[in-house]
Specification:
4% strand, mainly alpha
Length: 157
């Protein structure tokens, strides 16, 4: 059997029998928000079960659990709720609060380097590293969404 014929046979017989063939993978947050939880799309970049590094390495956040057993399956669901402490985020990602603090600091430094002037308008004067910790709750503004969403969508986080 030629390689082209083998690919055609595989496409016709095996891909249609795939258990995921019946699922439509959501393309937007609006579509994703309506799906049942835990999220079945482990390959999604926002799923908390695995993390794919820029180098291509795969890290399992919960190696001792199955995907449907993780406490939270979607980082976007967690972000939609109220603010969280470093300890709470660490528990969700199975990381220490110190590692979460380092990730937060790196993200803030990248944001400041790329959007320093716009971010200065969003946070109160003073120490911007702890602006979120000092406030009980920060309401997201349209300006913050305009800055942060393109970065997240472009894979900056």
């Amino acid at each position: 059997m030629s390689p082209a014929a083998l690919r055609r046979w595989h496409r016709e017989n095996l891909e249609s029998a795939s258990p995921t063939a019946a699922y439509h993978r959501p393309a937007t947050r609006g579509e994703c928000r309506q799906l049942p939880r835990p999220c079945p799309f482990v390959g999604c970049r926002h799923h908390l079960y695995i993390e794919v590094k820029p180098t291509g390495a795969v890290t399992m956040s919960w190696p001792h659990l199955e995907p449907w057993e993780v406490p939270e399956s979607c980082a976007l669901d967690v972000a939609d709720r109220d603010s969280h402490t470093l300890d709470e985020i660490g528990e969700l990602l199975n990381l220490s609060w110190e590692r979460i603090r380092k990730i937060e600091r790196g993200a803030l430094e990248r944001l400041r380097a790329e959007h320093g002037d716009e971010l200065a308008k969003l946070w109160p004067t003073g120490n911007q590293d702890h602006a979120l910790e000092e406030q009980e709750q920060l309401e997201p503004s349209a300006a913050a969404a305009d800055i942060c969403m393109p970065i997240a969508e472009a894979g900056g986080w």
